[in-house]
Amino acid sequence: MTQGNGKIRLGIIGYGGMGTVHAAYLMKGLVPNAVLTAICDTSAARRQAARKDCGEKVQYFDNDEAFFAANIIDAVMVVTPHYSHPALAIAALNRGLHVMVEKPAGVYARQVREMNEVAAASNRVFSIMLMKRSRLGYQRLHELVASGELGSIKRTMYVVTDWLRTQIYYDSGGWRGTWAGEGGGVLVNQSPHNIDLFQWICGMPRRVRSFCSWGKYHTMETEDDCTAYFEYPNGASGIFIASTGEAPGTQFMEIVGDRGKIVLKTNGQQETLTFWRTTMPVSEHIRVAKSGFDLPETWKCEIPCPGAPGESEHACITQDWVNAIQKSTPLMVQGQEGINGVQLANAIHLSSWLDDWVDVPVDEKLFYEKLQQRIEGSTFKKQVRSGSMDFSASFK
Predict the structure, then answer these.
(1) Which residues, 6+ apart, have CB-to-CB distance to 391 below 8 Å?
(2) In the prediction, which pLDDT does 4 show?
């Protein structure tokens, strides 16, 4: 199925903001063992833009059936609005194609579960564009927690308020910031990366209590501000805070364990990872200390974690996927893992809607019913502005 030069033939469905990003690094050759051969988009204007950007060596399609039937791709990147990710992924997998879906895996866990089942039975390579896992700081934090070096987790906190978006951003597409088109706000658009990292490093909580604000800073009907409280199976607690309405914003993850604490701070492409490690477990120190105010001896360790340009993070995940297709190497991000972030986003939404605690895994039927109520009961009038945006600014 590959070209004579041994390259994997890639197709992209959806030439909106993120579709242009993926096409750009592929055309630059940042994934050297892959070649972009086809782009599909229902919009004539976007197909024209794609032809201008990518040239005549790429073929262009206005519907996914013709795109799949042309038999000119080995693998497909699904880069369409959120609701369509599972259906298009399933269609591609059933055609025998390898699949990469953009985040989130879907809007509600029930549809993502169906996609995962098809992927598991397909013998195809299925990944998801959760490119923040490629960053060295998060990889090292994950390794430290998984190794047991921090001891059992007591408390977690992840603050992600550096996702500022202006009203122009939400007005740039009819689907943005709506229940029917996007299925949520900051939890399903900007923060799937962060929700994924939180669960990848700290594990899944057993229940969630959340407080979301709907259109607090923008003219939109979905959430642009959220605070969620997690409880983990071992009794540890966690807090997740996300917003698209703050500036300059903050991003840091703090994990406290029985052997100290680790803090990862992110400022653009720069990361600092600091581990304050106690020389004995805190639980033991509490029992054997000689006075009521003794603190355990603590070592401060600065762990190097150089950053990488945002563009190469996307290319890194795509390269990893292509390597897995060609060489059967392990994936950095298994596509089936995308359901974890969707489960958490669903639980956070549902908790806020019900004004109560919600268990994880979420009640998928109840969440779907409540989501449909918001779609059907919506009176929101969406304003759409003409023009396009440079989405590469999203990763700076």
Answers:
(1) 17, 18, 20, 21
(2) 46
As for how many domains the chain has, the answer is: 2
At 46, is the secondary structure helix, strand, or coil?
A: helix
State the pLDDT at residue 300: 97
Q: Are residues 79 and 218 in the same domain?
A: no
What average pLDDT values come out for the chain (396 residues) when binned by 10 residues? 74 94 96 97 96 96 95 97 96 98 96 97 97 93 96 98 95 90 94 97 98 97 98 98 96 97 89 96 96 95 76 90 97 97 98 98 97 95 71 54
Characterize the bridge pairing of strands 8-13 and 34-40: parallel
279 lies in some domain: yes
Paired with 299 in beta bridges are 277
d(CA 342, CA 395): 22
Q: Residue 12 is inside which H or E element, if any?
A: strand 8-13
For residues 37 and 158, membership in a common domain is answered with: no
Strands in 247-357 per DSSP E: 251-257, 260-267, 270-278, 298-303
Query: pTM, whole model, 2 decimals?
Result: 0.93
Domain co-membership, 106 together with 204: no
271 part of a folded domain: yes
What's residue 393's pLDDT? 57
d(CA 58, CA 289): 70
> Beta 223-231 vs 237-243: how paired, if at all?
antiparallel
**One domain for residues 40 and 164:** no
Question: Which CATH number does the domain housing residue 138 bear?
Answer: 3.30.360.10
The verdict on 149 and 242 lying in the same domain is yes
